[in-house]
Specification:
mainly alpha; 3 helices
Length: 79
C-alpha cells in the first residue's frame, strides 16, 4: 500500500484511499472484508505523512472526493 501511495504522490497525485464496499446486488459475485477502524486510521496517517513529504495539500484541492470527505478519511480534513 505504501509503495502505491508513494508512487502516486511522487507524480504529484493526491491518493484517495477508500475502504472497499461490495454493492449489494453483486454480493454473491465478489468477496472482500472491509478494513477495521485501526487499519483505516493507520493508512490515513501514512498517507498524510507521504503527502507532507511531497508537499501535497488536500485543503487546496478542488476535486470532488477531497472536498466532500463523505466516503473517506481525508488527511488534514479528518486527521
Amino acid at each position: 500500500m505504501r509503495e502505491g501511495v508513494e508512487y502516486l504522490a511522487a507524480m504529484g497525485v493526491i491518493p484517495v484511499l477508500r475502504p472497499i464496499t461490495i454493492q449489494p446486488l453483486r454480493k454473491d459475485e465478489l468477496e472482500a472484508t472491509r478494513p477495521d477502524a485501526e487499519r483505516l486510521l493507520k493508512l490515513a496517517l501514512m498517507t498524510r505523512e507521504i503527502l507532507d513529504k511531497y508537499g501535497l495539500r488536500v485543503e487546496v484541492s478542488q476535486t470532488m472526493c477531497l472536498t466532500c470527505t463523505g466516503c473517506d478519511i481525508t488527511p488534514y480534513r479528518d486527521i
